[in-house]
Every structure is written in C-alpha cells, then in structure tokens.
Amino acid sequence: MPRSAQINPPAETKPARRTSQRPTIRDVSRLAGVSRMTVSRVLSDPDMVLPATRERVLKAVADLGYVPDRAAGSLSSRRTGFIALMLPTLTNANFAAVAHGLTEALREAEYHLLIAYTDYDMAEEERQLRNLLARRPEAIVLTGAVHRRTATRMLLAADIPVIEIADLPSQPIEHAIGFSNYQVGRTAARYLIDRGFERIGAIAASPDGDVADHRGEERMRGFEDELRLSRRATDLVLRHGSAPVSFHHGAAAIRELLARDDRPQAVFAVSDLSAVGAVMECQRLGVRVPEDVSIMGFGDFEIGGEINPPLTTIHVDFRALGQRTGGMLLDLLSRNAEAGSGEPRIVDVGLRVVERASVKDG
Amino acid sequence: MPRSAQINPPAETKPARRTSQRPTIRDVSRLAGVSRMTVSRVLSDPDMVLPATRERVLKAVADLGYVPDRAAGSLSSRRTGFIALMLPTLTNANFAAVAHGLTEALREAEYHLLIAYTDYDMAEEERQLRNLLARRPEAIVLTGAVHRRTATRMLLAADIPVIEIADLPSQPIEHAIGFSNYQVGRTAARYLIDRGFERIGAIAASPDGDVADHRGEERMRGFEDELRLSRRATDLVLRHGSAPVSFHHGAAAIRELLARDDRPQAVFAVSDLSAVGAVMECQRLGVRVPEDVSIMGFGDFEIGGEINPPLTTIHVDFRALGQRTGGMLLDLLSRNAEAGSGEPRIVDVGLRVVERASVKDG
DNA sequence: ATGAAAGCGCTAACAT
DNA sequence: ATGTTAGCGCTTTCAT
C-alpha cells in the first residue's frame, strides 16, 4: 500500500513514554501499518474495512493481545456502555434474581451492569448514587418508591433514563416497573379473611430510622388497612427486630405471637424467609401447621415450596422483572438515539397468591 | 484575583459545542473563578487549597450539581478505581456473600466492584474476562482452580494483581485465598466413616461439558478417595442432574438412593441446598433423619440450621473470605504503588464440620 | 476505503 | 497556593 514519503516520521511513529506496558491502539496501528482510525473501524464496524486490511489488523490485535480501553473510548464517544443498578442488598434471592435477569437481557447489547447496594440505608443510597453517576451510566435502575430529596434531584440532573423497579412508587421519578407492596398486604389480608379467619396476625420488622425496609412496611400498611376494612383487629400485627428479616426473625416472632392469650389463627409474614422460619419453629414447638396456625409468606422463595407443609405465599416474578427491565432499557436507549425519550412508562407486573398447604380454611 | 490581561480569551473561557448538558470541571472553574486544577485539587486533596478558595469552589460544585467524570479522570491518572470480580453466579448465597464482604472491605477505599458472572460456563468466562479487562480494573478476583488457557494468558498479560478465591487451585495464577474442595470431600467422608457407617453415599451433579461445577466435582473426588482408603464402596456416590444444584436436586437424588437395595446409611450432599432438599423429601417419604438415614451437607447455608433436624454440614466462612480478599487487595494495591508486588500469597481459610442433628452414629 | 486533525474531561508534572 | 502545558487512548468529523 502507498505510504506517504514525508521525511518527518508520520504520526503513528510518535514515541511515547508510557507508564503502562499494555498495548494501545497506536501499537496495533504501527504493527499493522495502518492508521489508528482503521484499527478502530476494524473493531467496531469490520465491514467498513477492506478484508485484506482487516485481516492484517486483526492479526496485529491478536499478536499484541490488544484489549481496547473502554474508558478512553467512552470519553470520546460519550457512550460508556454502563447501566447502573442500585439494590438494597445482593444477599436476597429475589434481588439477586433481578440482577441476574437484567444482566442476561443486556449481555447481547454489550452493556455492562454497575451494581451498587445500599444495605437498606438511605444515606448510603445517596453516597452510592454519586459514585455511580461519576461513571456516567447511560441509564439507572433502582429499587423504587422512597428516596431522599437530594437523591431524586441527582437522578433528575443526570439526564438519563431512570427506571424504578420492584416497588411501584406513587410518584415515579420517570419509568417504573414492578408491583404494589401495599397491594401485596391487602391481598394477603383479603385471602386470609376469605378463608374465614377471625384472629389474623402478621410479622414484620420494625421500621427503624435510616435503615428501614420501606417495602415491607408498605405490605404491612396494606395488610392493616384491609383488616380494618373488614372490621378485624390489627393488634396481632407484630413488628419485631430490624430489617432485613430472615429465618430467625420468623422463628422469634411466631414464638411471641403464639405466646399470646389471643393467639392468632393465621399469620402473614412480611417475607417467605420469616414465614419459613415460623413454620420451622412451629414444628419444634409441636404446633401444627396449618391445623393449629396457618402461615402465609411473600416472595415465593424456592425454599418455601420445599418445606413441609409447603408454604402458601404471594408470588412476584423477579427474574422476569429483571428481564423486562432489560427490555425496556434497550428500547429506551435505542430510541433515545432517535427522537425524544417519550412518555414515562409504568408497568405493573402484578402478583398472585400461590396456594399451598400452609394455610387451611379457618 | 489577578487574571492574565491577554487579548485572546484565557483557556477557561474557551467555548465548547458540547453534546451533553452536564457540567464539566471547566464550568465549575469558570463559576468559581479559578483554574481547573484548583477545582481538581479541592475535590481530591482539599487541604492543599486555601480555605477561602475551597469554599468558593465547593459552592460552585454544589450550585452546578457537578459530578466528576471518572472515565476522564481514570484516563489521565491511570487509576480506574475498579476491581473486577468474576463469579459463577450471583444467585448462590455464598457467592453473594463474597461479593457483599468484598464490597464492604473496598467501600472506604473508594474502589468500585465490577461484577461479572459465568453461569458455570467456561466460554462465557473468557468473554466476560475480555469485557472486564477493557475497563482496566486495578486487580481481578475470580473463583479459582479451572480456567481456559486463553483466559489464563489474558490474566497474565493484564499485569494486575490476580486473586483466585473459594477454590484453592493446585497451580494458582498468582494469589489465592480459599479452601480445598478436595479436602471438603475427604473431611466429609472421614467424618461419616468415623461415625461408624458402612454404606455411605453421596449426591452431586453430573459433570457435563462446558457447563460444570468443578468445585462440586472436586468435593466428590475427595469423598471417593477417602472412601477407598477406608475400603468402602463408592457405588453409592450418585451423579444426578446438572449444576447448579438446588433443593429439587437433593429431593430427586435421595429418592433414587433410597430406592436402592443397598440403601445408604449416610449421605453427603455436594451442597446444603441438595442436603436440605433431601431432608425435606425424607420427611415426605416418612423416612426418619437421622434414624433411618443420616444426611450431611456442605456450605453451611442459613437454611440448614433452621430445618428439623438441623443439618450437619461443613462450614466455610465466605463472607470473611470476601473481607479477607478485600484486605489483601488493599494491601496489594497500596504496596504496588511503592515496591514490587512481592510474592504470591496463598491463604487457606480452612473449613470445619458443624455437627448438628442430621447425622447420628451408625 | 483510509487518514489527519481535533478533542472528550480530566490530572501529572512542572512552573510561578 | 495556584496556574499552565501536555497529554491519557480513544472516536468524531471531515478530508482525500
């Protein structure tokens, strides 16, 4: 191929006192005898380059073990390929499933998930949010409903698509995809009332300062509202310990409830984890489920279906939620390239009672 | 403050046709009437700047809602603040705990975890690895022991600290922190042999092409070796279904084992998940644990301690593993700034049998 | 089909 | 204590 016959060295010969030893696009271009742009094209849009040139470049890339630096690419192209995801915790099967589903949906589109989690702490949410935004994600996904004002402001200022998931907020920041935790509570109460129970209880964590499970509390609010509407007492709704709940929580809470004079006939647990813990504790106490007490959970965790008796629960498809979020994201990001980002989208994925054997008729 | 009296506009006045609306360091510098470097200093090393100047800059930052672009910063400083973490899956409580522990350890040092997972697929590991390296992490943590050759080569070429975790590889790439899965198997077998059992079985997933649970298979190898050393038969070691295992796996596998003429007296499950599933299935079948069959698991998942009878298992502290990895990382990255990175470090966090009620003496 | 110039938004290194 | 210069490693844009 013709190379310019100038006396001064061409650009790609420019020496550099580099700190790192990793090859750059310039090293590849020199080795292949092309300009940096040609290397860039081979890597991003191979058909734009003559096959012969392309092969030469590809060989140079392989020989050097060249891996492009996305930070540099992002800076130039203004596309980072990051999607930010903020979760309360990773050590919850349902949230982990969301992350899993999302990653899958985004994998082909070459987006990379940036995960942060808050440990149910709103101050931490704000800190994490700032860190995330510094990475210039092209969109942000977070568990919805309650944020601090400054957090909301930062979100708005970022000027990227925002999707709130899991909890359907009454005032979404922009897009939302999830279900109503309030509705979960009402549904659970309705279900137990319809089974004919009179003394109905619940177990949840107590709301506690900055570290709180707002989602769980919403479920309890719905639960109590529905009880009241049916003229049932709400004094068997127990707030015990602090979030996040787990097996022990349920065990301790059911013990407390069973010790009461007006022991409940049926109990709704804020999470399957608590519910399973409660069932296990009943086994140990010789209290039969559901004959002596019916127990119902939320979240449809795998373990719930495996215990004896299997747990009646309320199911939300978190993995599908993650995948749908991924779909919406892809759509948002592609049409963002064309026209205005369009209307906020609110999707209720709904919920359903999964009837198993831990609840009988009252 | 004195500004140069040149006719051409000084640098900070330079107009830019920017695509994005987000404020840059230049906007802040203009508003505060200082140079960009001063802004940079206020944000990274505030004490270096006069209090009065600092306040002015901070106000400008707040007024504009300025969030620095880390991609640009990384490019310039050659420090991305990323640590890469590659896991088989996020939907396993123990791996999630590793991620959790690691994040905690790194949080203060302002490192950001880049998580990828392979779904136990080695081809995917390679793809993910390339994506991760393109983000120029300062170190990489991965679940150890088995990698493809090209993956190992990429890791070496990246010239950053590599820590293999969970599984202690026989030939570590560099640093390693974990335990020996082979030893887990031997320990389990030894424990059951010492309890006096003769017919000892095990349940695991069958190794299956590219998608395989090498760690689980290692455990089985150790288990079988120990059985042989004690002249026990290994024909009750059952490979059933495919990884990753869960409750159903254990239920199905124990059914198969119990149906045999030479039904085992004791069974080691490759994971607590399988073990719990097995115990639950026994409950349903009316097979008493441990009277009719003893069951032992691995991983010490929370649920194992909650069921009836509580599960005897082998414990590895994954969260501590994550935290220790974080500590090693911090140390490696700081001393990397000083001298050579030093010797490879291999840490065995060990394991211990947690004796509960699901195993009795044979 | 390929290349040259310019610049993305920062910070290291060297002034002053 | 603060400013200036010169890039970091890419991609955009505009030539050719």
Automatic annotation (TrEMBL), chains A, B:
Keyword Transcription regulation: yes
Chain ranges of the HTH lacI-type domain: 23-77
CDD domains associated with the record: HTH_LacI, PBP1_GntR
PROSITE patterns in the record: HTH_LACI_2
Example GO molecular function: transcription cis-regulatory region binding
Keywords from the named record: DNA-binding, Transcription, Transcription regulation
UniProt-annotated stretches for the region Disordered: 1-27
Top-level taxon of origin: Bacteria
SMART domains reported for this sequence: HTH_LACI
Name of the protein described by the UniProt record: LacI family DNA-binding transcriptional regulator
